[in-house]
Amino acid sequence: MNLVWKFGMCLYSDGRYNEAEVSFMEVAKRREKVLGAEHPSTLTGMANLASTYRNQGRWKEAEELEVQVMETFKRVLGEEHPETLTSTANLASTYRNQGRWKEAEELEVQVMETFKRVLGEEHPDTLTSTANLASTYRNQGRWKEAEELDVQVMEARKRVLVEEHPETLTSTANLALTYRNQGRLKEAEELHVQVMETRKRVLGEEHPSTLSSTANLASTYRNQERWKEAEELDVQVMETFKRVLGEEHPSTLTSMANLAFTFQFQGRNGEAISLMEKCFQLRKRVLGRQHPYTEKSLEALNEWQIENVETL
């Protein structure tokens, strides 16, 4: 059973969510049979399965499992047990991915406050839950509230984990996103460069986190209409993701879509349409036709094709 779980985790890490689902389904069923439906390991197996649903954009199936896991953990381990709180945070993430901000926010505040009380204000789990709440504020355009929490998390992680710790860098990148969304592009750029350079030094040039920070910097250049600099980084990120993770990995496909947008903003419609067509077809195969990223690719593709016909 452990081997099947490890295999599922490898598939999940590769972004092969459909295949990971099969492994996690098998693990969950076996654990239920051997350990019982309410055993913590069975519930963790169900949470893993729900995560594959979430990453495929199958929100309703993810939500159904996550509610079941959360309610069972509450009954078996108690409302304030870390496993219960983690399962509540997972459900909040599913709400956030559906744009159900108020429901997500309600759960995230609950998780954050409980972690503060049970584990302390600067415990890593408390800081992660605070960062999740900041993300929900950011998605609602509540920039000042997001910024306040982002700064709080970043400073605490610097103090607790040191400046170059991966989680500290993630919180710095989150603050940069909040700046970018407010149009504070120079401040965003400064932080994105700092995160990128530190990740290169600490994790290596081809680490997925380094590539994500490079993509964030490219996006900031795009917002400043610095097309050539954006394109140079977008190409670098896409080609490296292809080599490191494979052409069909979700992160590779995201970088492909980013480059397509950079082409489109420069009026290079043919190249943009061609690349987005490829991105759409791959996302349809890997993530499914109904996944939000697949639908966004198709929406952009249709819009560009119409514009291209009108300008002929």
TrEMBL record:
UniProt superkingdom: Eukaryota
InterPro entries reported for this sequence: NLR-like, TPR-like_helical_dom_sf
One Pfam match: TPR_12
Endpoints of the signal sequence: none
Protein name: TPR-like protein
